[in-house]
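User: structure tokens for this one?
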Amino acid sequence: MTSAAYPAAVRKYDRVSVVLHWSIAALIVANGVLAMMIDTWPREQRPPIVNLHAVLGLAVLALAVWRIANRLKNPAPPLPPGPVWMEKAAKAGHGLLYLGTLLIPCPAPRRCCRAAWGSILAFSGSPRLSRVRIARSSDL
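Assistant:
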């Protein structure tokens, strides 16, 4: 796109919103990788890793609350012109992402879903990282 395609007065997200967005994204990815790899560590080394997983989850929750408060104070820039259905879909999708970001660290919704739907929520198509073995220095 050329610079002529965008007017000079386009509002952007404030710096705090951008930093919070990418910090939350990085923590979610790191926590997900940590959760998928927990079975690769020996059982006696797991408690500190589980604690780290919990702390990262609480950090995501705290940053998400901060991000929502910041979003209420500094609204998002207006969407580019387009169909009304696309604007509604974007707002609904954003709302679901915020809801998910708030609910993922909370164990109660996960337990309720697991009780209601069982293994339907399991990532049946995801790679099984638990089968990956980490070599110990004594194995080398």
